[in-house]
Amino acid sequence: xxxxxxxxxxxxxxxxxxxxxxxxxxxxxxxxxxxxxxxxxxxxxxxxxxxxxxxxxxxxxxxxxxxxxxxxxxxxxxxxxxxxxxxxxxxxxxxxxxxxxxxxxxxxxxxxxxxxxxxxxxxxxxxxxxxxxxxxxxxxxxxxxxxxxxxxxxxxxxxxxxxxxxxxxxxxxxxxxxxxxxxxxxxxxxxxxxxxxxxxxxxxxxxxxxxxxxxxxxxxxxxxxxxxxxxxxxxxxxxxxxxxxxxxxxxxxxxxxxxxxxxxxxxxxxxxxxxxxxxxxxxxxxxxxxxxxxxxxxxxxxxxxxxxxxxxxxxxxxxxxxxx
Length: 324
Description:
- By secondary structure, the protein is of the alpha+beta class.
- The protein is built from 10 helices and 10 strands.
- It has helices at 7-15, 61-78, 98-115, 164-172, 181-192, 198-203, 218-229, 244-250, 254-261, 278-288, and strands at residues 41-50, 82-92, 118-126, 132-141, 155-159, 210-214, 232-236, 268-273, 292-299, 303-307.
- The radius of gyration is 20 Å and the shape is globular.
């Protein structure tokens, strides 16, 4: 492991080349500057990922970089915002060497190109551990889709497939020895590198009545919409979209649907929309080349219920991930 250079040399060598936007000043100043486009508002989000909590010490550094960006991009996507850039804070233990940091910077560069964003600044500091990475992401939108707009009679939708990241974590923890190597790797990849639905979020502007990114678990995050919208969410377990890879690990049953719906780290978009906008939602999904499934309905009341094919509520011990 090669010794990493000093703080300012490290910034100049690895991170200044990522500050491509004019207002980032090449990371040569104490601050950055950014003006919203006319008629749009600045949308802000910050999330941190911590070694052993959000990623494994053995995860490749480029995937750690991408996860740090994408968990934040996912929140902007759920609000219908177009991402513009980010601030990066690195808390580095002594054991984090230059090879790791070079790979980390390459991961950032690849995602900056994919999502059209720039680094605008941040901070690097030493820590006794663990390694932690905090990203403050920002973007723009004419208006955001909040959690509070769901109404009785709305339909509930979710993008992509649910539970793959949780299944990938289960594989890393020892499950799925009988799976093929390709299936194992597909699930692990979903855990390590989520796919924020940026294009879909922008396509849903004016269609979704409420929206949230699925980070803590589908049931838990729909619960946040239910709480602030003062409604009850009914999710039909057979309609929860599961991937073939997840079914190879956990099967297709009410139990596996419940496990998938309470797993975290999906970073899909869960949203509601009036029933008369079903066709428009389908068109938005096609336009953004994103799979979207209708999974339930909004009713008067409180909370979230997961029901089987016969309409019976499925008991859930834990709705999703919590830090405390």
